[in-house]
């Protein structure tokens, strides 16, 4: 038995070697559920790409970025940038975008802090400054 989300557990459940369960803890009891839609589980946890949920196609993104004019520490470790996707994608899931940009361009995007949703002027996010140079 294990806990957490990992690709190995998903693969074992897909092959029929094991089953996935989810626990909903409560104050006086916990409810146990069988995960019966394994592909939906994988999409929800980023194990399978889900363009509808993330807004991101599974391709090399055409990206433009600019330093946020209100950035107070332009030489800091992390800076706020405004990102435009010229490929027509929308950033609905920062974790998914960060994963793709790490693989495609080596960017290190902060996913634990706040970020600005997509607007006509772009999407604001915090990025490790040195990773933008690669």
Structural write-up:
This protein has 134 residues and is α+β, with helices and mostly antiparallel strands. The protein contains five helices and five strands, in the order αββααββαβα. The strands form two sheets. The protein has a three-stranded antiparallel β-sheet. A two-stranded antiparallel ribbon has the order 1-2. β1 (21-25) and β2 (30-34) form a beta hairpin. The termini are far apart.
What's this, in brief?
This protein is 27% helix and 22% strand. The chain is an alpha+beta fold.
Counted by DSSP, the helix tally is: 5
**In which range does the helix fraction lie?**
25-40%
Low-confidence stretches: none
* Largest beta-sheet details: 3 strands, antiparallel
- The ordered string of helix (H) and strand (E) elements is HEEHHEEHEH
What's the arrangement of strands in the largest beta sheet? Answer: 3-4-5
Mean pLDDT equals 84
Beta fraction: 15-25%
Distance between the termini: 41 Å
Describe the SSE topology.
Elements: H1 7-15, E1 21-25, E2 30-34, H2 38-44, H3 51-54, E3 63-67, E4 78-85, H4 94-105, E5 123-128, H5 129-132
Antiparallel strand pairs: 1-2, 3-4, 4-5
List the main descriptive attributes of the protein structure presented here.
5 helices, single chain, two-stranded antiparallel sheet, elongated, 5 strands, 134 residues, alpha+beta, 3-stranded antiparallel β-sheet
